[in-house]
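>> received
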Amino acid sequence: MLAVRIPNSVEERLDKLAKLTGRPKSFYVRQALETHLDEIEDTYTALYRLEHPARRWTLDELEQGLDRQG
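>> returned
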């Protein structure tokens, strides 16, 4: 179970959509999460990697297997 606070304007839109279609509001919240969660994860992963850069390997180093050495 998850409780989420959303702005009144968003809830009003969600209410209208639910009444229009006969589906529960939770259906649309779940659908929105499933549709956009990958994008949100990718964004935050990219931002984290920009802030915490890791070791980069050249093609020559990869071909020599240096990336596998401790």
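>> The CA atoms of residues 51 and 66 lie 25 Å apart.
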